[in-house]
Each structure stands twice: as structure tokens, then as C-alpha cells.
Amino acid sequence: MLPRQNCSLLFLFILVLPSINFLPSLCLNDIRYTNCSEAFTCGTIQNIRYPFWGVNRADYCGLPGFELDCEDQVPTITMASEKYRILDISPQNRSITLAREDLWNNICPARFLNTTLNYDLFRYSPGLTNLTLFYGCDFSTGPLCRYNCSINGTDVDGFYMPSSDTLDPSMGSCNSSILVPVFVTVAGALQANLTSLSAAINQGFNLFWSPGDDQCFTCMESGGVCGHNCCQSEFICFCYDKPNSDSCPTRPGMSSSFSLMIASTGLIKLLSMPSIANYLVYCDEYLDISNFLCRRRIRNLYS
Asked: Between 92 and 144, whose confidence is greater?
């Protein structure tokens, strides 16, 4: 049987080992750190993180209003109860390119709704203009931009204007209209008959999101991952061991040179001991360290 003094020293070494961040893989990471370290990937949209969340990322990994979904490898986001197809996301520019899902390859929607944003979170980028789509019109001499629609089994004449201008009352009236943002260059191509109305709408429009990322940058630089405190509605930095308000004290797996020297020396002595598995079992029985988090992992590693 091993001396109690040696066993106590071994127990002390194992007890302080996780606190100096040496071999952190022996211990479990904070579940929120692990979850928010995973990126959102769907179709052509790859490696998206804060402020977005959804699918494989819990709500505390991003901000309210930034939930993403993935259906048949098509990434989408919902704003004001309307679904938009995501064509591109640029975290560096804090920009997102969207196209209306109800108008995707379909210029004859069942409902006539204008494009609506949450302006607290998003704003239109420069270089956009509105297309106006008109339905159920009684034009006697209508605009040249005309197309036929079948909506809910009814044939409807549709018209569009490559601007948000209102109709001249002398032209007649329409039952419904929709405003759809498009790029100015696309509207010009449409007016010159270089593209179709459906293709123009499918190219989408660009938005900037409002929340800044200064706090997130600081958090990531310290080795953390960015998140949101849902209870207090504020930023939080998830570190590998526990959350902090803005940054992590140490990076995962790193420590001071002094702590690393102690851990390395102790580990060499630990590995040089014969029958280390039996030694740990003896200490477990003799000192009752059943509450030590990493005990089982260390035993399995060296058994």
C-alpha cells in the first residue's frame, strides 16, 4: 500500500491541475462555449456566427431578430412575419443580401405585402431603388411593363414600374401593389430589357445590420465566443470555463510560464509512477475524491 503522504501529494497535484489550464481537454468545456463555437452553415452560406443564431446554435449565441433557418439547404431569415432567402452574408461588412421568398421565381404572390424591415436592427444599403408591382388594374392604356398572373386560380393583369412613383390617376386604378427593393443597376437593366422581372427580384437587395461588433471582437481576441445574455438583454462573452461580461481572462489551453512549469514537472513525475491506475484508485478510496470533476477522465486516460 502506498504511503498516505505520497497519495495526498498526488491528490493535491490533480486538484490544482485544472485551475492552471494545463491539459484542459481532460475537463469539460462550458456547454455554452461549446455550442456557440459552432458556426451556422446552410447551402452556400458558410461559417456564420454572432449575431446570428438558429438550427445548431442556441438563442444565447446571437441577438433577438437574427435567427436563421435552413430548409433543403436554403438559408432563410424571418422579418415582420415574412420570410427572406439569404443570398449572402458578409460579417466583415456587417451586410446581408436577401430576396423575398414569396417572390422567388414567382411574380404572382398569393398575398400582396410590401417589404418590411425591423429598422432597429437593419437598414438599407446605398444603391437600391424600389420596383412597384401592380395587380388587378383597369388601365385603358397601361404601362408597357405588363405581365399576366394567375393568382388563386384567377387570371390577373400585372404591371410594374422600375421606380416607387405613384400612378397617374388618369391611367386608371389598381386593386393592389407591392414595393420591392432591388439594386439600381438591376433596375436599369430591367428598364433596358436586359433582364426579366423575376430575375431582377431574385438578385435581392442588400442590408446592413446595426449592432456593432466591438465587444465581440474583444471577446474573440481573448479566446472567447460571443453571445447574448437573454435575461439581462446584454452582450456576454462565453469562455471555455465560464461566461464573462466582455472577455476571457486566459485563452483555453494557455497559462503563465510558471504554471506551465509546475504542471509539466508534476506530470512527468506522475507518468513515471508505476501502475498509475491503481494509485488513483487507492487515493479515491482513501481520500474520497468522488466530487472531483476530472477524476474519471484521468483514470481512463492512464488505465
From this structure: 92
